[in-house]
Design a protein that fits this description.
By secondary structure, the protein is mainly α. Helices cover 63% and strands 0% of the residues. The chain has eight helices and no strands.
């Protein structure tokens, strides 16, 4: 066992390296994906899809964003990477605006077994408690108990 191991520094270095991916933000990933490219192509859209899914945007939402961007890219024919970033921002904002905050979520699934359990998993500091509170409020607004 080396001196660094005895001091615990080797473990910290390994931990830091292990969580490096988690620290990397979606904007950094997008920036690196678009560097050096002057035009949007299928490869760029595939990379964008991968980034959104691995950034916990969700598959359904990611596919909707990609579909909207593909439609706009096809209409405009030539879209640069800078324009793609603007398109992405606009489509995400539009998607968020499409959801009415005053309207409760539609929970059409029946829960024949009571109590109904929702498992929420995540690392420290990702907003599990906040999300649970928001879900509870949506369930309440939808008339579920």
């Amino acid at each position: 066992m080396g001196l660094l191991d005895k001091l615990g520094l080797k473990k910290k270095e390994t931990l830091d390296k292990g969580v490096e991916k988690s620290r990397e933000g979606i904007l950094n990933k997008l920036g690196r994906a678009f560097v050096g490219k002057d035009q949007v192509d299928d490869e760029t859209l595939d990379e964008l899809e991968k980034i959104l899914i691995t950034s916990d945007v969700g598959v359904t939402t990611t596919l909707e964003i990609i579909k909207r961007i593909e439609t706009r890219v096809a209409k405009d024919k030539f879209v640069t990477q800078a324009e793609l970033q603007t398109l992405l921002r606009e489509e995400i904002v539009d998607l968020l605006k499409d959801n009415d905050l005053d309207k409760p979520a539609e929970f059409d699934a029946e829960f024949p077994i009571k109590p109904h359990v929702v498992l929420v998993v995540g690392v420290n500091g990702v907003g599990k408690t906040t999300t649970i509170g928001k879900l509870a409020n949506l369930y309440k607004k939808a008339g579920k108990s």
